[in-house]
């Protein structure tokens, strides 16, 4: 049976193949070790030439790995174990290598990083915090630098020029936040000089479960104030009240849009004291005026919103409930505040956002390593297409994992934990205690102080001091209390004489809802064949037991007549708890999967917008793009225009869009043949476009087109992001009407995106035909009414 199970065990088959690779790499070691330093350094250009001649990275793997192993021995005094070579191959194959704590994952990454860097497309090594990124870059850097590769480092405070250099390096170390936020910042950049990233090629994610699963619950968001122009709404609302509906502006209630007439534009400019409302510097004021007109005409107190304690609170149109904390986007909320005479608040708007899942799925190849991935393999495969390969330890595991001990109350549990710590301290054996919160770690600390036991208390803020203390947690008499994740990525090395005492003893004070987190804590003990032990102390008041299976255990304790302070200790109970954890894990996976399904809709849109935006940013001449947009707008414009039977209404529509009236307007619109009217007006529009180009000069016109297109696409995309968030928040209500919320979300999101694209085209043309730039030389601007 053992033979059959091994035969059908895919992990065992994978390991068998990896062992064949290792044999071939080991066979090269005598030959490679005889090479001089200069011979080894020449290997990098040789490998690159072989790639140019048509060989693949797989063809180079055996020799490249043998070279890296030899260079590591010479530069940092470390030689890759066979299991580390196996881990390196798994990473190169774009999979996850599960390797126990203390197996040297940092060194493992040097093998695939070097091999893949030979292509010159960049390799990103992703860590959970700045400290580890910096530590690993300078610890492993000498290997790469010996072989002629450049190594970059990203830190939270790295300036933009240094960031560019870091990304142009062959291998770049940084955190998931730095890589993700740089991607977002690149996609709101206003100049090519602000771009830092290259195309995303290959990423090796350290502590992959922490980053790709735990961190994936929270998307990366760049937000900013809504341009800090709250004060202009006070002026804009007065102007809006001064203008007369159907005389100075027209409204469309169905689409909730407002357009100024020629007369209204003149009156607004006079009231606001500006010569040209469409001057680029007045864009904010023009926008505020239109939003205030919307607030006056379409949004009503005690229907769409209420005013309570000097604050405008939105009323949910589906439920009638007050939506505390929610605000209308794109300045509309500020316009309503101005209308109601309450304090106009600055607001943050989402400028750019992406989920962790969708960021990392953009890499051409993705790999990861951790001590705990197998329990989440289904999620890694379904979401990221990443298989998990469990690599055996270099030395057999000697850690003893004792069964869980369960008490009735949390108080009894902590008393038992303190008692066990006291017993370990008396013999000098180091103890690491994992807690689930800062509050509980402080509670335990107070209890230890009463007993006179010296100890360190750490929480999961991930800083250098913490990593250093965790590293010393294996010394004699060391007692360290930490949140379960504290100091992750740092090895606990046993001090002198500790192995003889039984090694590090790990105590968990509560089971986490994820088995991975518990296994990560356990994995602190027993590194590299060291002795060690672990035990979890639980109570029926713990969240996990209270929610899953606590009643069964409680009934069992009562039947057994358990007295205060008397625990239950049974492998059967440990299995019950692990089954409870598996249930929670499945539930959380479904939640993350659903969040991703919604984000995938936005991701498709984001991809289209960012690609178009990058074209606008980087293309030297945007004439082709502008002409394409103009053709589409003209088609839509004439369709709308000819559907209006009253030809007098054509004038306002034409003037609002193109900012001028042809000198022969009256003659043109007398034509009976619509085709003739269209041809003549289209001709005048194109003449006007060419005249604008002449007015500004070709170079300035190029830049004006770029500024306008970027301004419009950013403004509308920010508004769209906030609208999509509002849609996502309310879409669950569709289930009440027996509609699938996701299907409804996709339909509405598609329509909203189409509307945004149409608005982008329409507004881009409107701005290009109406915009006037004030310069020092030209202090006044004129706006051609007839041309």
Can you give a write-up of this model?
It is a peripheral membrane protein. Residues 86-224 form the Helicase ATP-binding domain. ATP binds at residues 84, 102-106, 491. There is one protein chain. The chain is an alpha/beta fold and 787 residues long. It folds into four domains: 11-222 and 357-390, P-loop containing nucleotide triphosphate hydrolases (Rossmann fold), CATH 3.40.50.300; 232-346, Alpha-Beta Complex (Pre-protein croslinking domain of SecA), CATH 3.90.1440.10; 398-585, 3-Layer(aba) Sandwich (Rossmann fold), CATH 3.40.50.300; 619-770, Orthogonal Bundle (Helical scaffold and wing domains of SecA). 55% of the residues lie in helices and 12% in strands. It contains 32 helices and 22 strands. The strands form five sheets. Strands 15, 16, 17, 18, 19, 20, 21 and 22 form an eight-stranded mixed sheet that branches. The protein has a seven-stranded parallel sheet with strand order 3-4-2-5-13-1-14, sandwiched between helices. A three-stranded antiparallel sheet has the order 9-10-11, with helices on one face. Helix 13 packs across helix 16, helix 26 (571-618) packs parallel to helix 32 and helix 30 (674-696) packs across helix 31. The longest helix has 48 residues, at 571-618. It starts with a helix and ends in a 17-residue tail after the last helix. Mean pLDDT is 86; it is low at 776-787.
């Amino acid at each position: 049976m053992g033979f059959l199970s091994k035969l059908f065990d895919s992990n065992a088959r994978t390991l068998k193949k990896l062992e064949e690779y290792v044999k071939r790499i080991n066979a090269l070691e005598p030959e490679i070790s005889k090479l001089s330093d200069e011979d080894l350094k020449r290997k990098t250009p040789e490998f690159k030439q072989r790639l140019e001649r048509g060989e693949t990275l797989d063809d180079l793997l055996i020799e490249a790995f043998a070279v890296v192993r030899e260079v590591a021995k010479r530069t940092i005094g470390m030689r890759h174990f066979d299991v580390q070579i196996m881990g390196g191959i798994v990473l190169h194959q774009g999979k996850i290598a599960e390797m126990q704590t203390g197996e040297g994952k940092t060194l493992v990454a040097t093998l695939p990083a070097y091999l893949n860097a030979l292509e010159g497309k960049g390799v990103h090594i992703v860590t959970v915090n700045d400290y580890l990124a910096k530590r690993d870059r300078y610890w492993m850097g000498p290997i790469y630098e010996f072989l002629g590769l450049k190594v970059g480092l990203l830190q939270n405070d790295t300036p933009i020029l240094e960031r560019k250099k870091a990304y142009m390096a062959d291998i770049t170390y940084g955190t998931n936040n730095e890589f993700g936020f740089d991607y977002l910042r690149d996609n709101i950049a206003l100049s090519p000089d602000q771009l830092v990233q290259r195309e995303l090629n290959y990423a090796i994610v350290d502590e992959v479960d922490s980053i790709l699963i735990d961190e994936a619950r929270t998307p990366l968001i760049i937000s900013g104030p809504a341009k800090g122009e709250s004060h202009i709404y006070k002026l804009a609302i007065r102007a809006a009240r001064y203008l007369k509906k159907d005389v100075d502006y027209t409204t469309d209630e169905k689409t909730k849009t407002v357009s100024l007439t020629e007369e209204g534009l003149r009156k607004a400019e006079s009231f606001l004291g500006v010569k040209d409302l469409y001057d680029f510097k007045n864009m904010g004021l023009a926008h505020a005026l239109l939003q205030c007109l919307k607030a006056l005409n379409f949004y009503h107190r005690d229907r769409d919103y209420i005013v309570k304690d000097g604050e405008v609170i939105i009323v949910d149109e589906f439920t009638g409930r007050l939506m505390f904390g929610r605000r209308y986007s794109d300045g509309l909320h500020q316009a309503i505040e101005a209308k109601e005479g309450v304090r106009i608040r600055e607001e943050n708007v989402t400028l750019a956002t992406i989920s962790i899942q969708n960021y990392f799925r953009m890499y051409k190849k993705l790999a990861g390593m951790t001590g705990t991935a197998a329990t989440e393999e289904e999620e890694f495969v379904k979401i990221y297409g990443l298989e998990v390969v469990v690599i055996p330890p270099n030395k057999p595991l000697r850690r003893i994992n004792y069964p869980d001990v369960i008490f009735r109350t949390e108080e009894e549990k902590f008393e038992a934990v303190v008692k066990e710590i006291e017993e370990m301290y008396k013999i000098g054996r180091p103890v690491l205690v994992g807690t689930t919160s800062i509050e509980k770690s402080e509670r335990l600390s107070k209890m230890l102080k009463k007993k006179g036991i010296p100890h360190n208390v750490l929480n999961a803020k991930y800083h250098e001091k913490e990593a250093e203390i965790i590293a010393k947690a294996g010394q004699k008499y060391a007692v360290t209390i930490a949140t379960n994740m504290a100091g992750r990525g740092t090895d606990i090395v046993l001090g002198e004489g500790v192995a003889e005492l039984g090694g590090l003893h790990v105590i968990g004070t509560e089971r986490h809802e994820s088995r991975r987190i518990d296994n990560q804590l356990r994995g602190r003990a027993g590194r590299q064949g060291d002795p060690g032990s672990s035990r979890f102390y639980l109570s029926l008041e713990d969240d996990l037991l209270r929610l899953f299976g606590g009643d069964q255990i409680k009934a069992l304790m009562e039947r057994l007549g358990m007295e205060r302070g008397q625990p239950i200790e049974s492998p059967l109970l440990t299995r019950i708890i692990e089954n409870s954890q598996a249930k929670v894990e499945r539930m959380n996976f479904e939640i993350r999967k659903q969040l991703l399904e919604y984000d995938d809709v936005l991701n498709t849109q984001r991809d289209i917008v960012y690609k178009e935006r990058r074209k606008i940013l980087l293309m030297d001449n945007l004439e082709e793009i502008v002409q394409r947009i103009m053709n589409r707008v003209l088609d839509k414009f004439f369709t709308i225009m000819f559907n209006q039977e009253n030809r007098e209404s054509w004038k306002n529509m034409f003037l609002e869009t193109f900012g001028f009236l042809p000198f022969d307007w009256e003659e043109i619109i007398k034509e009976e043949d619509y085709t003739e009217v269209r041809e003549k007006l289209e001709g005048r529009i194109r003449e006007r476009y060419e005249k604008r180009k002449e007015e500004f000069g070709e170079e300035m016109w190029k830049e004006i087109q770029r500024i306008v297109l970027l301004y419009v696409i950013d403004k509308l995309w920010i508004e769209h992001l906030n609208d999509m968030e509002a849609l996502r928040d309310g879409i669950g209500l569709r289930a009440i009407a027996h509609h699938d919320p996701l299907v409804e979300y996709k339909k509405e999101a598609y329509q909203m995106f189409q509307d945004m694209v149409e608005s982008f085209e329409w507004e881009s043309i409107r701005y290009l035909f109406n915009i006037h730039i004030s310069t020092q030389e030209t202090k006044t601007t004129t706006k051609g009414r007839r041309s």
